[in-house]
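Quick check before the chapter quiz. The format below is the same one you will see on the exam, so make sure you can read both the input and the output lines.
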Amino acid sequence: AKVLLVEDHEASRGALAEMLGSWNLEVHQAGDSAAAERLAELQQAPFQLALVDETLPGEDGYAVAAALRRGDWPAASSVVMLTPALPARSNGDSNSETQCIARCLIKPVKQSELLDAVRCALDGGARAADPLVPARAAPAAQAPRALEVLLVEDNAVNRRLAQAVLEKAAHRVV
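Here is the expected output.
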């Protein structure tokens, strides 16, 4: 299967390409949106999967994903966004840039999460109900367990702040 990997950080791109290559995927690498466009235009057939960094220089990852899905470049069947934290754009954004994302993975990406995303994309897996919920998010039905926390802080302001935060999260400060 052909995979387009668009990541501006060379070390991250190399590590991801190595993982993808170890699964016998044909990986085409680009460091920015312009390089990705050149790679995509050279292809005879579209990519089955595009892994795109959200924070690319110039055009961001969402613009690259939208261009791939719009057909400005040879389309990718599935687009997975690589985010440094929670996605910058939410599913509430109704524009085509967020609607074309099949899944978001938080960097650094765990090998098991990447494999799961690749399998889902290549097997034509059903689109998640909320693709912009990162893969590491805990299931909503699982309520966090209340804890008893021993708070040790010599600064009174920091102590009150920490206590308020913990109590708001339903923990008990002892």
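If your answer matched, good. The first strand starts at residue 2 and ends at 6.
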